[in-house]
């Protein structure tokens, strides 16, 4: 993590004010949260819609802060404490993280995409750790504040940082990539996420392609080559950096061929200059694409086949992302961190492929932030469900009711249940649940479907 004197911090961000007597105080990391701040850290008071971090300065000091950024428009409390006065505390931490990142001798890999960002990050980090000191974005710290916090968490001897970059509107990825200055940029895919704000696929592509604006001139750009719209947009940009594509299409640089998939994982082949077969202990054939993007980066950094497979065998995955949980007589595949049309289709396809279970149950929650077509998209999910391949559908939420209604037109069996109460849903699940079952939880973060897993396992 960043370890600097306050005068160094002041100079790095061109701050307005810091009393000279505090110049030599050293900070050990930064924090925006007084609940988790630790001794020796620099406090960053952020102004949100419903809160102002400046109001919690005394709590920050009590819990160990040794200095703080301070918005110049806020009155400075009458206490003897190091206040580094800035125009805007958010812009100040962004500037600090940019300066800190540029001071480090490391490589940065930026990852964006509609789906698969976190899985790709986790897979790639696990592979790179076999050879390099690697750091990755923790949790969902992938926005205008999260990326700076991630960069400021890097130790000075980090060799490679894997940085996830999220967005909801145009301009956000451009900001993040200019802060992180990636040496490698990845677009995992383009899907239906962000339609509420961006309206069209063309705008989503435009927003995701902002990642190349901060890409090192000698860097590498990797993207999903099966998407013709994305490929056309890339060609129009005349990107000068090296480009590699991945996908099933035979024109890709890294061509994916599935061999087998079951509850223990996926076996697949990648054809590049040579053909290599990999084993991935993750459920869902869509994970082949995320893994192939990661493997392309690994080869760029000279990792061997053995290094790559060793990394795949020792994955460290973020919770609630295709997380397989074993109960006493059933399994739960918890994929409830995020949801949109494409990722939901992938989850259903994954459930279909799990043939080693006696019973298959889908628990489907609302897909949020999909814009004007959200009802049609929920109906589309219901229309595509094949009840020859799953045994029960449980829905949770108002939008998911449209999924249930569409699905009921396909069967007269009493195997579809809708709820707005998780306890009642859990009780009905327990009633129908048989030994040797698999339950897939799929819904947006706001639906908190992980609570159903907790109820079932308690």
UniProtKB/TrEMBL annotation:
Keyword set includes Ribosomal protein: no
Domain Mur ligase C-terminal: 321-445
Record localization: Cytoplasm
GO BP, sorted A to Z: cell division; cell wall organization; peptidoglycan biosynthetic process; regulation of cell shape
EC nos: 6.3.2.10
Keyword Ligase: yes
GO cellular component entries: cytoplasm
Pathway listed: Cell wall biogenesis; peptidoglycan biosynthesis
Binding site for ATP: 113-119
Domain Mur ligase N-terminal catalytic: start-end pairs: 27-100
The reaction(s) this protein catalyses: D-alanyl-D-alanine + UDP-N-acetyl-alpha-D-muramoyl-L-alanyl-gamma-D-glutamyl-meso-2,6-diaminopimelate + ATP = UDP-N-acetyl-alpha-D-muramoyl-L-alanyl-gamma-D-glutamyl-meso-2,6-diaminopimeloyl-D-alanyl-D-alanine + ADP + phosphate + H(+)
Keywords: ATP-binding, Cell cycle, Cell division, Cell shape, Cell wall biogenesis/degradation, Cytoplasm, Ligase, Nucleotide-binding, Peptidoglycan synthesis
Mur ligase central domain span: 111-298
Stored Pfam families: Mur_ligase (PF01225), Mur_ligase_C (PF02875), Mur_ligase_M (PF08245)
PANTHER family: UDP-N-ACETYLMURAMOYL-TRIPEPTIDE--D-ALANYL-D-ALANINE LIGASE (PTHR43024:SF1)
Role this protein plays: Involved in cell wall formation. Catalyzes the final step in the synthesis of UDP-N-acetylmuramoyl-pentapeptide, the precursor of murein.
Family of this protein: Belongs to the MurCDEF family. MurF subfamily.
Protein name: UDP-N-acetylmuramoyl-tripeptide--D-alanyl-D-alanine ligase
Phylogenetic classification of the source organism: Bacteria, Bacillati, Bacillota, Clostridia, Eubacteriales
């Amino acid at each position: 993590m960043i370890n600097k004197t306050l005068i160094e911090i002041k100079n790095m961000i061109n701050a307005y004010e810091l009393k000279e007597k505090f110049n030599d105080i050293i900070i050990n990391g930064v924090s925006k949260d007084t609940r988790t701040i630790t001794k020796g850290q620099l406090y960053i008071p952020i102004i949100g819609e419903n809160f102002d971090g400046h109001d919690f300065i005394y709590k920050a000091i009590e819990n160990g802060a040794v200095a703080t950024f301070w918005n110049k428009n806020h009155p400075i409390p009458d206490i003897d404490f190091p206040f580094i006065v800035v125009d805007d505390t958010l812009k100040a931490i962004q500037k600090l993280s940019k300066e800190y990142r540029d001071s480090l001798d490391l490589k940065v890999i930026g990852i964006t995409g509609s789906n698969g960002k976190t899985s790709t990050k986790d897979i790639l980090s696990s592979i790179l750790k076999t050879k390099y000191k690697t750091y990755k974005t923790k949790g969902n710290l992938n926005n205008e504040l999260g990326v700076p916090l991630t960069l400021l968490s890097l130790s000075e001897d980090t060799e490679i940082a894997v940085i996830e970059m999220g967005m909801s509107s145009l301009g956000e990825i451009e900001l993040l990539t200019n802060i992180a200055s990636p040496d490698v940029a990845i677009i995992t895919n383009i899907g239906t996420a962000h339609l509420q704000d961006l309206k069209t696929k063309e705008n989503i592509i435009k927003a995701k392609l902002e990642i190349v604006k901060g890409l090192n001139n000698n860097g590498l750009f990797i993207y999903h080559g099966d998407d013709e719209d994305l490929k056309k947009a890339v060609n129009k940009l005349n990107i000068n950096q090296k480009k590699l594509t991945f996908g099933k299409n035979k024109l890709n640089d890294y061509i994916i061929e599935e061999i087998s998939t079951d509850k223990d994982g996926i076996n697949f082949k990648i054809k590049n200059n040579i053909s290599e077969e990999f084993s991935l202990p993750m459920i869902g054939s869509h994970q082949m694409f995320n893994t192939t993007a990661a493997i392309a980066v690994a080869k760029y950094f000279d990792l061997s086949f053995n290094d790559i497979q060793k990394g795949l065998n020792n994955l460290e995955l973020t919770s609630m992302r295709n997380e397989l949980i074993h109960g006493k007589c059933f399994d739960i595949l918890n994929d409830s961190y995020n949801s949109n049309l494409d990722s939901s289709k992938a989850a259903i396809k994954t459930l279909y492929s799990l043939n080693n279970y006696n019973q298959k149950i889908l628990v489907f929650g609302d897909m949020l932030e999909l814009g004007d077509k959200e009802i049609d998209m929920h109906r589309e999910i219901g229309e595509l469900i094949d009840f020859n391949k799953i045994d029960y559908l449980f829905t949770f939420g108002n939008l998911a009711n449209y999924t249930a209604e569409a699905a009921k037109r396909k069967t007269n069996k009493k195997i579809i249940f809708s709820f707005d109460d998780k306890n009642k849903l859990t009780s009905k699940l327990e009633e129908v649940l048989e030994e040797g079952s698999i339950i897939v939880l799929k819904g947006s973060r706001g639906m908190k479907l992980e609570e159903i897993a907790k109820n079932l396992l308690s």
